[in-house]
Amino acid sequence: MWFAPGIVILIVIFFLQARFNLLFKDQDLRIGLIGTYQEHDLPEEVTRLVSTGLVKADEKGKIKPNLVTGWEVNNDITSFKFKLKDNLKWSDGKLLKAQDLVIVIPNTEVSFPDDKTIKVSLKESYSPLPSLLTKPLFRKGSMAGFGPYRISKIEKSRIFITKITLEGTRPNLPTIQVRFYPNEKIALTGFNLGEVQALIGLSNTGSLPRGSLIKVKQKTDYSKIVTILYQTSDSLLGNRSLRQALSYQAPKIKEQEIADNPYPPSLWAYNADSKKYLANEEEAQSALERAKSSLSEDQLSGQIILTTTPNLENVGRAIVDSWKKLGFNIKLRVESGIPQNFQALLITQSIPTDPDQYFLWHATQTKTNLTKYNSKRVDKDLEDGRKIITEDDRKAKYYDFQKTLLEDAPAAFLYFPKTNIIYLKKVEKLLDTVLNLPR
Asked: What is the pTM of this model?
């Protein structure tokens, strides 16, 4: 006979917990992330709280010492030696020795001549090597790091992490519980039920409950770029003037930070004087007239298929509508993965901290140079950029790389995507201490 009243009490407790979070301390901060992760591939939002890298990149992408005093490099740029700072300690209090570090870089040999030295040897010259050492470090065989937090508890469902608890390594830092949700729908439900006070990475904010208690901020992710890639081996899109026409005609996407270049505008190698595309119908018509002089009527009347993924479908529709104004027969194709064969591909690509984009544009990179772009001048610029150590000389090479690439237009660079951060206003101050919220 106590069953029914017990159910009622549980429902009331559940409601009060979801509404007022009675079981959590004021200093607890509960954050939700979307995705499935294991211990070896934790997202940056977690790892950067727990540790830091040997070096760090400043706001211009320049690499600066962090856990090291600096580094030495040999004349042919095939050997780097990094010297650790004195008296560095892991988050559990143990003194750092170079041999404790786990550093894995493809095609390199990492050795530790003594307790304070890390040596990285390469078969070929590679000046951007330090930029690969910005990733957070952990002691071999553990999750001890150098950040403001340490991992105190990990909960799993089979092999995937469901929740991580982070404890501050210094006073006055809030305890952080990070929950992982397999998809956005479940994450939004968790937010509405009070499981988390903040969600990072929700793409669709239109389904959020409206009210004065919730706030949404956006942070531009300069490590990614949304791009239209043109298949340069295609019988139609192999024409440079036609690619230019499509790039000029491509729209600027509202509420996104425009990318007129393969580099962010803050990067030290960004060339502000390079060619600009997007939303320029006059130049699009001019380029189209040039294309018509070398393309047949049958080619120009052929279909152009723009392929994209579901999360970029709305952007793809805007591009298709714009391209149709040039008189082309355009079709949008939405696929769940990245196709091996395409004419034009709307995609989000990761770009490195360093201006070296060899893997994206060099003719030898058949697996990652998706456009099959082939330019001897660009190849030479990218090769030389890896063999030069001085910043001014490298900048000259990358300035020329941008100029040539944008003139050839194997791609149209659209924007740097934004990450949504949704949170309860009452935790804004706490959240800002750990996430450094955008202003």
From this structure: 0.86
